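REQUEST FORM: STRUCTURE PREDICTION
Request ID: SP-0412
Submitted by: Lab K.M.
Chain count: 1
Length (residues): 177
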Amino acid sequence: MSELRIVVDHLRLNYNGPFNAKDLFKHITAFLNERGFDTKVDKEFEHSTKSGKQMEWQINPWKRVTDYVRYWPKVRILVSDYKKVDAVVDNKKSKVGNGRVVIYIDGYLELDESNRWEGMPMLQFFRNLYNNFFYKVYTERFEQRLNQDMHHLYDTIEQFFNIYKHYKVVSEPQLFE
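STATUS: Completed
RESULT:
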């Protein structure tokens, strides 16, 4: 089995207020595609309750950097109490969603993804020597790049939510009776 290193562990972002969930998902997917990641949606569901919609969206993008190294981040978004409300921005009334969001970002670095060094215990020993001593400078550089990409994703999501901080919620819909 290949070696999997945790580079970014549960980078968390909380937001409560107006936002558009579809635009958030598109924004994250566009960012990852722009960086050269291929994406795979693991979970995507929503559940309607009295307090609003509950949504969960989880993707596992990957990017093969070299024959030996692959980036393997994971993005998980939990949305709760999501309802469509009327909001005012720039003296114009519009419909927008309102709710709470928690976003978790993890980043993994996979070394020897093709399992070339897995045949015998001696080869695994040489793989560890190779990763921890000879190739250490390169793996650290790959870890730094993955760390920068995941923190840049975090910053762009924060910027996305900053756009909606100027929206003022005017009316909330009536709950189910």
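NOTES: DSSP finds three helices and seven strands in the chain.
Reviewed by: T.R.
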